Amino acid sequence: MTRPLDGITVVSLEHAIAAPFCTRQLADLGARVIKVERPGSGDFARAYDTRVKGQASHFVWTNRSKESLTLDLKQPGALAALMQLLGRADVLVQNLAPGAAARMGLAFDALKLAHPKLIVCDISGYGEDGPYRDKKAYDLLIQSEAGFLSVTGTPDAPSKAGNSVADIAAGMYAYTGVLSALLLRDKTGVGSHIDVSMLESLAEWMGYPLYYAFDGAPPPPRTGAAHASIYPYGPFQAGDGGTVMLGLQNEREWKLFCELVLQDAALASDPRFDSNASRNAHREALRGLILAVFAKLSTEQVLARLDQAQIANARMNDMASLWAHPQLQARQRWQLVQTPAGDIPALLPPGRSNAFDPRMDPIPAVGQHTEAILRELGQDEAAIAALRTCGAI
Q1: How far is CA 114 from CA 56, 75, 87, 106, 190, in A?
Q2: Is 195 one of the catalytic residues?
């Protein structure tokens, strides 16, 4: 079986989520990913929690199919080994603190002279220039800077996303940026530099609320789990305590909703509710009518009526329900992956291909592959022992 990135070597100076998520996806496609970590503790995300057989939930999610190489890059011997490794690499990805890679001689302009085919992808909070370039950035801070918090939550309080949405956005754009750079290199024969900003990544995902507030218009209000501008579109409780999410998109669906779900066809022509704008203006009144009907039904009965009317709907699942989701089970989307603490289930990457199976190789222990990689670079046992003695690896 041939995978799309077989034969591609990626070296990553990575921690936390954005860069590891990028490189894990490159590994999914067959790339060899060498993860450079601090000697001893490794990527600090390894210590975020102990929820997965004593391992961190963030870490096991973003670090399968990688090799772990420990290097203290403040020591000349370790930095020399990294430079030697880059001579064999196709891609360098890094999300170190602002300016740290450049101070070690790892900026694209410094590397391209010796390694003209190398692709360098720098991930940072705000990008390599501009007044914010030196600011540290974490996911929640970028959610704030990008305006995400201003449109997410309830009318009384903003809420952050329940996952690392800014990190994920940056990781996705880094991933696609590297793929496009590899395609470009096939055409030009030379590498390129990719400068990925977390702020710009999440700002792109804010396109709808940005344009909704175009030219000084009011932004979409915070409406909890309900849609800010379409109604009814959001969560409603059934009589058995379950929560159903439903969404109407047009007037045809509104009429079917009244007739088959609420079983009150006349409500469709009520002037308070006869357009989406009117329903938005009278949300509380309509919400009360819907909840009064749903209070007499179980969750399953509500879902059945919505399906009969072909109204889009979903359960509000928790994490236990997602682990057991029948659709994921039916499509065989779970596969066991080895970790230092034993096998765990992992989701196959989205986008099932009929041409290849993604790599689903083990999650490495800190420094698990250090000696093997150094031997591959030509270092003998004495040289490796000397590096270990001085704490360079």
Answers
A1: 38, 21, 8, 11, 12
A2: no
Exposed/middle/buried for 113, CB within 10 Å: 0-12, 13-18, 19+?
A: exposed
**Active-site position among 28, 90, 139, 167:** 167
Q: What is the pTM of this model?
A: 0.93
**Does residue 55 contact residue 348 with C-beta atoms inside 8 Å?**
no
pLDDT score for 44: 95
Label residues 262-288 b or e (16+ Cβ within 10 Å = b).
beeeebbebeebeebeebbebeeebbe
d(Cα 310, Cα 194) in Å, to the nearest integer? 45
pLDDT, residue 261, reads 98
Amino acid at 229: S
Q: pLDDT band at residue 1, thresholds of 50, 70 and 90?
A: confident
Distance between start and end Cα atoms, the chain: 35
Radius of gyration of the chain (CA): 26
| 282/87 Cα distance (integer angstroms) | 65
